[in-house]
Amino acid sequence: MTSGRPPALTLGAVAAVSLIVLAVLMAPWIAPYAEQDFTGGVWEPISAAHWLGTDNLGRDLFARLVYGGRNTIGVAIVTTAVAVFLGGALGLTAANAGGWIDNVMSRCIDVLLSVPVLISALMVLSVLGSSVPVLMGTIGVLEAARVYVVARSVARNVAVQDFVAVARLRGEGPIWVVFREILPNVLPPLMAETGLRFCFILLFIASLGFLGLGIQPPAADWGSMVRENAQAIYFARYAPLYPAAAIAMLTLGINLSVDWLLGHSNGR
Amino acid sequence: MAADVLCIRNLRVESTTGAVLVDDIDLTLARGEVLGLIGESGAGKSTVGLAALTFGRPGCRIVAGQVLIHGKDALTLSARARRQLRGVRVAYIAQSAAAAFNPAMTLLDQICEGPIRHGLLSRHEARARAIETFRVLELPDPEHFGERYPHQVSGGQLQRAMTAMALSCRPDVLVLDEPTTALDVTTQIEVLAHLKELIALQGTAALYISHDLALVAQIADRIMVLRHGKAVESGPARQLLEAPRTDYARALVAERSVASVQSRLPPDTGLEPLLVVDNISVRFGRHEAVRAARFAVGRGETVAVVGESGSGKTTLAMAICGKVGLHGGRVRFQGADLAPGYPGRSREELRRIQLIFQLPEMALNPRQTVARIVARPVEFYFGLRGAAARDRALELLEAVGLDGSLAQRLPGQLSGGQRQRVCIARALAARPDLIICDEVTAALDPLVAEEILKLLQRLQQQLALSFLFITHDLVTVRRIAHRVIVMLRGEIVASGESGEVFASNHPYVERLVAATPEPRMGWLGEVLHERSLIQSPHP
């Protein structure tokens, strides 16, 4: 499928993403302290005991960073799965059905899209309270609307092709048509969309964390870590920059990797 | 020779992966001369044409040879100098005019852009010249034609507008890459006539690329036949048509000759016809695409539906399949009424009517192997599973002349002709009584199309199949159809036995017949002469 070596930038991106994922998976083994242990003073500088210093309550920043990554990335993965399955299934259904079903579904999605995500999310989360399942469900549904748009439009292009007409005229049911004829042909763009959607969801969870509506303390989370430690900047400490850098690196890394994959899967 | 405007010597173009696309091509063009380049797709025609513009398509490199324009090697020029060359000294007319125009600019602005940008003419002069060209090309209302946007004119008009654009700088060499292939037969000859006139008028040398020998013969002084990137034969057009020296050229000429057709009698049809189309109408909104169509297809019979694009042929086929709803009338199959929409038909009814499409690459799922594609109807209709279905699929592939080793390939790994054979095998897998063929050979090279037609004929004899054959190619019709239905703007204007219809003097049928290029010298002139005598009003 792919030919030639990926460029250095892509290799770097893949390396960065793998490093983060590995660190996060191995958190209990590489973190020198537990997630919520108070192990030193407030905002201590970098030392042998605290590789990235300590946070606003004297917890080890490096430990918080790897455990926080676990929480943030874990929630983002589940949310992405919700968004892609929900949005993908609805999008394919609409594209396959066409006609008024497609119209009704698409207009409903348009309504959902017309409200800024952050506002809808803040609304739901302040009413229902911010627990992890609510967080996943809310963001999952909101982002599913965006996946729907992509899935529907690519599937629509496939659904009007002659081979789909052949299957329909043969008498095949909608399940066969969607899963055997359409789905395999929309999978590559849908995979790319999944990668990008993951980035947006990660950023979104981090922003909610920053606003205090994401994953709740004392559990670590990159977004809330930025907020908790924001004041450290005044004391010439780098504490908020580490989680911010982690978010940036992961998003950028995934974006670059997906871009490359996308560019190379088109050639079939 | 110093008089040669364009001279290509020992041209060799390779793809970046090292495959040789064209090799050892030599050609010369004098002022006012037209050289026809013909061959199948993939023969390297366009590659040679673009090389004349010193342009290699992405993924191609000109690795050896010279392109001399007025005796100077254009390949050694700087990128900037080559840009100056293109459009001014050498111009290009592509197959799809629609893709060559910017939809957001008026035609006149785009046509005048070249000469103004290259500093050849003032805006006023460029305008005047464009309007003059419109007049020669017989475009409607030449004074104001250029104020329209590309989507506001017809395909034939747009192709002519593109000719005007290419000629706006009075180039020395014109490269025409299948300029009429996307057009209707009747529009095609008009565009061809205008091209010929303009080339003669401006004394431009032209390279005319086409897969249609009959067409090239009308405009070219000399013809070069390409195959697999090599020149097979070249010579004066008359000699190539009347006394081709190589087998390949001989096959090309024979394929297009109407004379080689043997008339065939329809088989005895004593029983009730297989398919009866009774007075059906199809509407899209207020537009009536098919109006009161009425005909029958007997067992083992081939009925051709002919007409220009937009005449409702395909809609008629879709109505029979149940893919579009009926506004009125009914479709009877084997003596029973069929539900108007396919979801209302039984599996058995669906099985008996199969469809083959124009573009096999669109009709095959690119993610399924050939074996999978052909085995599915076998499983679906006859309940065969696993090895039994696979064996049956291989049998079917063999029946359509495909090697079993292709079974595990994806459609993207096959040639156009092979793909169409897979489509035929898939249709046969259902053991149908009627196969509807929608322009099945239109997208194929002439010789490949010929083989597909032979295959269909052979299958008809073996399996007593009926065909409803939709096409705009009258050569095909004469070859295989027992009966013909001629459609014009949604209505059947003539029908009957093949020979009778073509011999009848229905004005539209005559027009269609007359517009089919014949591979002999002077055909275009005769047709145009006749037309001007008849002064026929618009159909």
* Main sheet specs of chain B: 6 strands, mixed
Mean pLDDT of chain B: 84
**Distance between the amino and carboxyl termini of chain A:** 6 Å
Q: How helix-rich are the residues of chain B, as a percent range? A: 25-40%
Keywords:
heterodimer, A: 268 residues, mainly alpha, 72% helix, elongated, B: 539 residues, alpha/beta, Rossmann fold, 2 domains, six-stranded mixed sheet, 20 strands, 40% helix, 24% strand
Explain the overall architecture.
The complex is a heterodimer of chains A (268) and B (539). Chain A is mainly α. Chain A has one domain (21-265): Orthogonal Bundle (MetI-like fold), CATH 1.10.3720.10. Chain A contains 10 helices and no strands. In chain A, α1 (8-25) crosses α3 and α3 (61-97) packs antiparallel against α8 (174-210). Chain A is elongated. Chain B has 2 domains: 4-254, 3-Layer(aba) Sandwich (Rossmann fold), CATH 3.40.50.300; 275-514, P-loop containing nucleotide triphosphate hydrolases (Rossmann fold, 3-Layer(aba) Sandwich), CATH 3.40.50. In chain B, the strands form 4 sheets. Chain B has a 6-stranded mixed β-sheet, sandwiched between helices. Chain B has a 6-stranded mixed β-sheet with strand order 16-17-18-13-19-20, sandwiched between helices. A 4-stranded antiparallel β-sheet of chain B has the order 2-1-4-5, covered by helices on one side. In chain B, α4 packs parallel to α7 (155-167), α7 runs parallel beside α8 (185-202) and α17 (416-429) runs parallel beside α18. The chains are: A mainly alpha (268), B alpha/beta (539).
